[in-house]
Structure formats: C-alpha cells, structure tokens
Design goal:
single chain; about 350 residues; alpha+beta; Helix Hairpins; Heat Shock Protein 90; 3 domains; 5-stranded mixed beta sheet; elongated; binds adenosine-5'-diphosphate
Amino acid sequence: MFRFITKNPTPQQLAMISAVNIGGMTLIAVLLIKLILPSALAWWMVIAFPLISFGSSYYTIHESLRLFIYRKIKLIYKSIHRLKAPVGGSPTNVNMRDHIIDQVEEEVVEWAQDWTKEIKLLKEMEEYRREFLGNVSHELKTPIFNIQGYLETLLDGAMENPEIAKKYLKRANSNASRMANIVEDLGYVSKFEAGKISLDLERFNLHELAQEVLEDMELSASQKEIKLEFKDRNPKPLWVMADRSNIQRVLINLVSNSIKYGRKGGKTLIGFYDLDKNVLLEISDNGRGIAQEHIPRLFERFYRVDKGRSRADGGSGLGLAIVKHIVEAHNQTINVRSRADVGSTFGFTLQKA
Ligand code: ADP
C-alpha cells in the first residue's frame, strides 16, 4: 500500500506509516462510537483521541525500531571501530546511542575503502616478493651452475693438466666473485628497502671525492683505453652535506658503468654545476648509450638493457637501483640522458654546505 513512498523506508517513514494507520483506525472507531452513542464522546475527544494515538504510536514504533536496529548492528559497528583504530592506539570514542544510525553507513563505506586499499597494498607486496625471489634465484643460478660445471670437469680428469686446471679454477673463481657481488649488492638493496640504512651526513669536498674515485678507477679505464677527466680542468672545492661513503659508492657505480659500457678509446667526463642551494654532478660517456624505451625502467632492480652482455661483464644489475636509493635517501634527484650509440649522461644533485 505504501510502497510508493520508498523501497528502503527509514525508521521514521515506517513509524509514520504505522502511526497514520493506527491514528486512522482510532478516528474511524471514535466516529462510530459518536454515531452510535452521541453523548458518550464530546467533539474535542473525536479530534484528540486519534491525534494522541497517532503521536504515541509514532513515538513508540520509532523508538522500538531504533532500539532494535541499534542492538542488531551494535556489535558490527563496534568491531569496525576497533579495526579502524590506529595501530597501538585506542578506538575512537563514539556516542553509539546518538549517532549509530546516522553514522553507520558512512562508517561502513569508509571502512570498506580502507580495507580495499590495504588488500591492494598486500597484493602488490606479495607480487614484489615473488618477483624479487624469482630474480634472485635466476641471477644466482648461472654462476652456481658454472662453478659446478668447472669443478666437475676438474674432478673428471682435467685436474691432471695443470694449464687447464688453472684456467678452470680461474673461471670458477670469477663466477664465485660474481656471486659475492650479487649477494653484497642484494644485502645493500634490501637494507635500503627496509629503511635500515641511516645516513651519516658530513661536510666534505665533492670534487676531492670525485678525484679519489677517478684515481681508483684509472686501472680498469686504461684496460679499455678510456680517459677519465673533469670537464673543468681546475675545478674549485665544492662543499656538500652528504654521506661521504655512500656518495663514493654512487660515483664508483656510475664511473664503472661508463667504463663497462663505454667504447674502447672513449672518454668519461665529470662536470659540476652550481644550482643555487644544490650542486649537480654529471658523469658523461661516449659509449654505447641507451635506447629511449629502456630509460624509464633503468633504475629498477635487475633491469638490464643487454642482458647477456651485462652478466658477462660481471654486473649484478643492481648498481643503478642502489645509486637511486642512495640519492633519494638524501632527498635529492637522479636523472639520465642517453642516446643509443652516442653516449649517456647520469646526473645527481647534492645539497651545498
Ligand atoms: P649492471 O650490473 O648490469 O651494470 P646497473 O644497474 O649498473 O647494472 O645498470 C643497469 C643497466 O643499465 C646495465 O645493464 C646497462 O644495460 C645500462 N647502463 C648503465 N649505465 C650505462 C651506461 N653508462 N651506458 C650504457 N648503458 C648503461
């Protein structure tokens, strides 16, 4: 009969419908009594009785419904509030009686949205963990199988020939070093990703540190006939506030990449640029360069442009991921410009001191 009012009536609407019914029936009853026994009721009673029965039934039904709903959803509501409370904190104090019906819909929607976000995050972490484990086992598989192969060949008789024995032992050793590199870099990356690395900030001369790194890399550069130089022949001291040993690691990774992926007889240049509050350091090479489609993924763990070649060069595929972590831990930025067969420039900023 009252379906036209609404499909999901509120407690007020339900109470109103029932009260109108009861009031209407009371009106009919008093009118009948007045008709049969006119002296039994005064006219004011004919008006007052239906009104009183309408008002009292509206109030009783509305309150009973409210109480009924309140009891039914009280437990659910309490659990939601407990789950919504911040970790370690106490649940928010809500006046359940006054607000429960008005707030519950809003609260449940909010709660559902929070959990959807949480579930999405957990799924992403699970995916990340699976991918990470897959990558690690893939990276370690090759050197382990290589070592196994060389040792088996030695045991099968190659040991008798000192020349071959030396060659295979050297190869097994270089595979073991590669594994050690991967494991060391992995430890470093996971410490960063778990937020376990705290920076040891100090004031130091960036130019002096870069000079030390270039001197340390001189030997491997000369093997590829690559020249390592500063853009400015007489650079001034450049004082920065940063973690010296971590920045040294960044420089070693970038300069060694410029050699690894540089061309024979090529050049690596280091330039410094003054940017008001920061210093920009750029390392450029004229090596094999990187095609544009690889640039967005370059700083991802284990991402390599030329997979076979990088592994053969002994790279862990984690160098640039570590570089990015270190620079970002300083609240600074790293960028790369590169063109295939022309060369690459990696640049990062540091705060001046
Ligand atoms: P890897 O251990 O493989 O060198 P990195 O994280 O240091 O790992 O580098 C990721 C990939 O980026 C490398 O495999 C290489 O393909 C590319 N790359 C890095 N630096 C250079 C560069 N200076 N020139 C060309 N390619 C580079």
